[in-house]
Design goal:
binds magnesium ion; six-stranded mixed beta sheet; Rossmann fold; hydrolase; 464 residues; binds guanosine-5'-triphosphate; tRNA processing; Gyrase A, domain 2; alpha/beta; GTP-binding; 16 helices; metal ion binding; Four Helix Bundle (Hemerythrin (Met), subunit A)
């Protein structure tokens, strides 16, 4: 990779905007300490002389106006044992954006540059402190929605994925080394035979490992992005009421008018450790109303993209044509069928319903009275963890970029195998195998294009 090491000093506010007891303004780079020192009250400790990894009480003073801005704590961390492998000073100041912003402005006037989003982590990567998959884990960690997704990110930050990829590449390296032997001693026929044998062996081995990793991809993606759960049903069965109940919040409008929800509403909620992206949809029915019709279209789209469907029926009414249609539409999907309004007299023929549903069980609930919701939450959890062998320490692939690279490496290995079948010369096989090796390396950030790096890091939040 083409790394031009920048050594200018960057600064940003690292705490989220809003009210809080403290905010943190962070400096990283060669001049971090001298810039911090230039805004202290000079009668206080000299930060350029303090030992690394120490914390100091002091003030922030504008050297031009002599105005004291805040009373702060300075944490001084000298390279190389820091997050960015550069000198870092973190200033803990009073909370609220005004103070933190004033301090940041002052640091910029004293020679620091405003950091781009993700630039601290980008430097950690460029300075070799972590590989790309670990840097991506930092981002996942910030966005983690449940304990499970946090574990996943932590594992990756730990370098678990890197180690695994490293071991795959090691296997390919053994085969590639054998090719060199082959090139050095071309006069021995059995060397050539030996070489293709080892290449085949290793290609198959690595393909199997890749397949195993890719199997975990869906699971990993769900942990990261949430299980897309669409609440589907005809109008007025209580979909929005259910959404509000699971969220413990009145997000969606509920009325007794059919067609209340006109658009898709998405909300994240943690149900017993399962991260759900709950999607409330417009009730599905034939309608002349143009706005509602667009809503119904969107509901159908949400349905087709869902990982899990909560199909809501109204058990105080008999089964309608639309119910039948929805039952048949979801028959191949992961679904939970709910009979809502269990508090009202029952008009729904359960035998008929079971006939329509086949194997799928149904669960009577009453959102109004809060009955059956506990069971529903348990069912969601069981469904989720049943489809997941849930190896506690498994390395999950959760990142689309990683999935794409693994798939490409797998294809390159297919080409190696096909080449062996048709007795292709060893040096041509070597090209494909080297490509597989390179592609796996890209997961950790080797040979990755500068633009991709910039784009990846720009997804971070400011100050990270
Ligand atoms: N009796 C009874 N009424 C309920 C129950 N759940 C919801 N309702 C009522 O049913 C009506 C419709 O509820 P909504 O949640 O708006 O239904 P919806 O499925 O979102 O309707 P649309 O958005 O129009 O498709 C409201 O008056 C709710 O108060 C329940 O368990 N029992
Ligand atoms: Mg609704």
């Amino acid at each position: 990779m083409n790394i031009t090491k920048e050594f200018d000093t960057i600064a940003a506010i690292s705490t989220p905007p809003g009210e809080g007891a403290i905010s943190i303004v962070r400096l990283s780079g060669d001049d971090a300490v001298t810039i911090a020192q230039s805004v202290t009250n000079y009668k206080e400790k000299d930060l350029t002389k303090v030992p690394t990894h120490t914390i100091h009480y002091g003030h922030i003073k504008d050297p031009k106006t002599n105005q004291v801005l805040d009373e702060v704590m300075y944490s001084v961390m000298l390279e190389p044992k820091t997050f960015t492998r550069e000198n870092i000073v973190e200033i803990n100041c009073h909370g609220g954006m005004v103070v933190a912003n004033q301090i940041l402005q002052l640091l910029l006037r004293q020679g620091a540059r405003l950091a781009e989003p993700g630039e601290f982590t980008k430097r950690a990567f460029l300075n070799g402190r972590m590989d790309l998959s670990q840097a991506e884990a930092v981002m996942d960690l910030i966005q983690a929605k449940t304990n499970e997704s946090m574990d996943l990110a932590l594992g990756q930050l730990d370098g678990r994925l890197s180690q695994l990829i490293h071991s795959l590449r090691q296997k390919l390296l053994v085969a590639l080394a054998q090719v060199e032997v082959n090139i050095d001693y071309p006069e021995y026929d059995d060397v050539e035979e030996m070489t293709t044998k080892i290449m085949k062996e290793k290609a198959l081995e690595v393909k199997e490992d890749i397949a195993h990793l890719l199997e975990t991809a869906t699971q990993g993606k769900i942990l990261r992005e949430g299980l897309a759960t669409a609440i589907i049903g005809r109008p007025n069965v209580g979909k929005s009421s259910l959404l509000n109940d699971l969220l413990l919040e009145d997000k969606a409008i509920v009325t007794d008018i059919e067609g209340t929800t006109r658009d898709v509403i998405e909300e994240f909620v943690n149900v017993r450790g399962v991260p759900l992206k709950l999607i409330d949809t417009a009730g599905i029915r034939e309608t002349e109303d143009i706005v509602e019709r667009i809503g119904v279209e969107r509901s159908r789209k949400a349905l087709s993209e869902a990982d899990l469907v909560l199909l809501v029926l109204n058990q105080s009414e008999s089964i309608t044509e639309m119910d039948r249609e929805l039952i048949s539409l979801t028959k191949d999907m992961q679904r939970i069928v709910l009979l809502n309004k269990n508090d009202l007299p029952n008009k729904l023929d359960k035998d008929e319903l079971q006939n329509l549903l086949g194997e799928t069980p149904f669960l009577p609930i009453s959102v109004l009275e809060g009955r059956g919701i506990d069971l529903l939450e348990q069912l969601i959890k069981d469904t989720f963890f049943a489809s997941n062998t849930s190896e506690k320490d498994a390395t999950y692939i959760s990142n689309t970029r990683h999935v794409a690279l693994l798939e490409q490496a797998d294809m390159a290995l297919d080409e190696v195998l096909e080449g062996i079948e048709v007795d292709m010369p060893v040096d041509l096989l070597q090209i494909d195998m080297t490509r597989a090796w390179d592609l796996l390396g890209e997961i950790m950030g080797e040979n990755v294009q500068d633009e991709l790096i910039t784009q990846l890091f720009s997804q971070f939040c400011l100050g990270k």
